[in-house]
Amino acid sequence: MAATVNELRDILDSPNPIPDPFGLLHSITILTAADGHTAALRELVVRALDKVEQFQKEKPLLMALAREFGLYPYMEQEGLTLTDALAVEMHRPDNLDGVVFSSIQAAVYLDLMEGRNVILSAPTSFGKSLIVDALIASGKYDNVVLIVPTIALIDETRRRLSDRQTGHKIYTHPGQAYAERNLFVLTQERYLALEDPPRPDLFFVDEFYKLDERSAGKISGRAALLNQALYRLMKTGAQFYLAGPNIHELSAMVPTNVSRTLRVTDFSTVAANVHRLPSKTADERKAMVKLLASTLTGGTMIYCGSPKRVREVVGWLTEDEDATYGSGMPDAANWLEHEYSEDWALPRALRKGIGSHHGRLPRWLAHKVVSGFNDGRLGVLVCNNTLIEGVNTTAKNVIVLDRTLARRAYNFFTFMNIRGRGGRMFKHFVGDIFLFHDAPEPEINAVDIPALSQSDDAPTSLLLSMDAQDRSERTNERLSPVLSQRVLSLETMRANQGVSPEAQIELAEHLHQLSLPRIQNLLWSTPFPNGRQSNALMELIWDFIPPDGASRHGAVSAAQLALYTYWVSSAEGDLRQVMDRFTEPNPQYDGKETHDDKVDKAFDFMRFWIDHNLPMLVRAVDRIADEVFTRRGITPGKYGGYASRMEDGFQPHLLLTLEEYGIPVQISKKLTRWISGYRTLDELLERIARLPIEALSGMDYFEQETVLATISSLRPDGGDFPLFGWARR
User: Fold this and answer.
1) Number of H helices and number of E strands within the chain?
2) Chain-centre distance of CA 414, in angstroms?
3) Does the reported pTM lie above 0.85?
4) SS3 of residue 524 by DSSP
5) DSSP designation for 444
6) Are 107 and 72 in contact (CB under 8 A)?
7) Tell me, what's the pLDDT at 438?
8) What is the pLDDT of residues 276-316, one digit of tens each?
9) Cα–Cα distance measured from residue 326 to residue 171, given in angstroms and rounded to the nearest whole number
10) CA distance 34 to 15
11) Is there a contact between 295 and 154 (Cβ–Cβ < 8 Å)?
């Protein structure tokens, strides 16, 4: 059966039985001899492995082709020839049971094990993180730092590594005590907050292209902090491994000793079918989405351009009373309605087997939704760009509904990341990608590393964090206005990580010139400011040092920022009360906002402002005001305690942190009797891990399941009592 690659692919894609299995494999062999190990031929082998049941007589030949293309993880262990069996064994990393590397994975692993640095660009399905697991399991490294882009990935990585039992303490939050051997799994912000951490032997940066992530054409605030973390890690002299997808080259300004460590591969262990859907109107797209969601099997993700669009698509799928997409999560739905809002659409969707995911959801809930999708209870997951990278899912099908993601037209790089989400090694060999718009044209994707290149795109906040001896002549020129001024000290500006030095100086000049009567509302040291004091503080933040995208996350003015913060603080941790405040009738907005819009705004405000930006910015104002007012002979106020309470979500100390481990505060409060007396996060986690069975009495099934899932992630033995067999109440 002499045939072309496209003809062979058509045969493998057909729902009909393969007419000549031996001839098909023989044709692949002939093409390989003629063309070499091309990506197209490797994909044919993957597609053949997807239909391995049709190659029973030809299985030795199929396994030989898998070996030829380095697809060792897919080689069945029984019935292999001695040569094939030896090849498989040669690709098993030490101390990592059940894992077999592909040929390229093994090459990268061996490079790292021999002490070489590696920057790896490989497709989403490559298994870049599995190499990290193998390095840790080798026992070679005492202290390893893993920098991941989101808190959700901290939890996913922690859960994965906790199963390995490598003898390391998994450290996920500043304030935990260091052990002799540590795995630091942190975002860049948390790494920068560490005090005197042990020197790492190895560090890993996941999704390293985010070093060059931009907002409105400029390096974003988070990218600046990631660069700062990379710079600090590079200064330790530790071995490094950076990984991400679909990067072709590094900027010419990146030092040669770093750029030469880049390895680029298109090696993928899954294949993808891309389908261009012919639809011209919004109604046609809606009808097509509903049809695909109801007929596709294997798990379907629908990518949307924004959280608002996510809500709209969830509405499409739930409007038919009889339509279901999986067994659903009814216990979670009931709990969410009781604890947040009866009129929220997400609980109704969960009952029908539909999940939604975006960055505004509480972290514990986002994890629950992804877990429900991965275990098949949810057949459809509607999401925005928060699931493009990082968090693993088992989707076979991906529908890209919108041309834009996160307010921008998606480019070829983003498209390839989305495409890589369809299919999953050992779960779905072949993924299906459905597009309502043409795929972007291929392009060369080059990444700059501003911390190393010191390019003109590097923000001054990053350059200021660098040691003087490491700055280039051009950097010193750019920093000259900042370093020569005498309004604000270098120490204060450096302490306010991620905040523009120029903006800090402008704020300091404003405070220096402020009249004494206007200063009075900034001189408080109480646990909570009153209304005038809060307004004065929020005006400084809003006018001088607002975070990127400040007006897109609930509040649209300093006064509204102060009001919403008061709502959250006065609720004293009662999230139902917070939700009721945000969703109450408002003549100014009613008719423009749905109930779900208001729920989403509440979550968005708490995530963007209360959880992340506001505590950091309150501390920045505190430091700047302390220096300026002290110089003016005025006793400054102290806002540190207020910032700390805000970081806790105005909840009891550290309970909000438990949401990162899967337990919402509403449930952790019910455990107060059993966890009281803790002083640190380590002590709190130890109490959670050792909860007695009596601690769960009085909880409903969902709450019991949630607590036990967290116990299981904290204790390799999963605790000493099973969930199953408990009576459902």
Assistant:
1) 33, 19
2) 15
3) yes
4) coil
5) -
6) no
7) 85
8) 998 779 999 999 999 999 999 889 999 998 899 999 999 99
9) 36
10) 29
11) no
